[in-house]
Amino acid sequence: MKRRGFTLIELLVVISIIGVLVALLFPIMATAKKKAKETVCSNNLLQIGVALNLYRDDYDMKMPERLSHLVPAYITNPDILHAPLDPKQGQHDGSDRMEGTLYLASGVSYTWIPNWKKALEMGWWGYWPARGAGKWGEVTPVSACHWHWATKFNEFWEQDRNRNATGNALVLLANGQIRTWPGRRKMEDFNPDR
Predict the structure, then answer these.
(1) How many CB atoms within 10 Å of residue 129?
(2) Is residue 126 part of a domain?
(3) Does a cis peptide bond (omega within 30 degrees of 0) precede residue 72?
(4) Which DSSP symbol is given to 1?
(5) Per-residue DSSP letters for 77-138?
(6) Buried (b) or exposed (e) across 29-62, using 16+ Cβ within 10 A?
(7) Structural domain of residue 14, as residue ranges?
(8) CB burial class (10 A; 0-12, 13-18, 19+) of residue 74?
(9) Number of structural domains, the chain?
């Protein structure tokens, strides 16, 4: 009995169908992967918000000097301070806005707005230790993740922004809520009513 195999044409048709299916699925898979990382980032910020409010309860509603002050008493796993889209996982030189490895060897990927020079100049927060309640009280921003639109860390972040920036920053408010802020807009323009 003679066995019949695939002809070259049949094999090419099957390969081209598989190629079309893969080409259709790649963008969907990339979007799903990015959305999953955004969800992890939101969860990290929510946990930071819980830790921050526990800290504030213990210290008469005062804000910590920096995010790393929450480790290890309020945040036992420092990986929570790493944004999933940060390619260096917090291993940056740091600045007044994002501490990087300045105070915590494992690094911090999220910005700490109460230390940001611009936020102090605009009256969002007072200087540490007597920061006050913040310009908008419990809806004053305290931390943000810019890795959903930024491609690299720099001291001012806005240097990485351009008209084509896509995505949003995730902003943690003092009360633990998360808001989104368009990457194309300057953080200085933030207003909780928008």
Answers:
(1) 10
(2) yes
(3) yes
(4) -
(5) -GGGGS-TT-TTTT-S---SS--TTSS-TT---SEEGGG-HHHHHTTSS--SS---S-TTGG
(6) eeeeeeeeebeebeebbbbbbebbbebeeeeeee
(7) 8-189
(8) middle
(9) 1
Is 167 part of any domain? yes
116-125 confidence digits (pLDDT tens): 999 999 999 9
Tell me, yes or no, whether 1 lies in a domain: no
Q: What is the mean pLDDT of residues 88-104?
A: 92
User: Which residue has 């079309």 as its token pair?
Assistant: 20
Q: Are strands 178-182 and 141-145 parallel, antiparallel or unpaired?
A: unpaired
What tens digit of pLDDT does each residue of 106-144 get? 999 999 999 999 999 999 999 998 888 899 999 999 999
Alpha-carbon distances of 66 from 13, 107, 121, rounded to whole Å: 60, 12, 18
- Confidence grade of residue 3 (pLDDT, cut at 50, 70, 90): low
Q: Express each pLDDT in 160-176 by its tens digit.
A: 666 566 788 899 999 99
Does residue 154 sit in helix, strand or coil?
coil
Mean pLDDT of the chain: 89
Q: Rounded to the nearest 10 degrees, how much is the dihedral formed by the CA atoms of 132, 137, 139, 143?
A: 0
Residue 132 counted as domain residue:
yes
Nearest Cα residue to 145 out of 189, 89, 68, 70:
89
The confidence band for 11, taking pLDDT boundaries of 50, 70 and 90, is confident
- One-letter amino acid of 21: L
Q: Is the pLDDT of residue 66 over 60?
A: yes
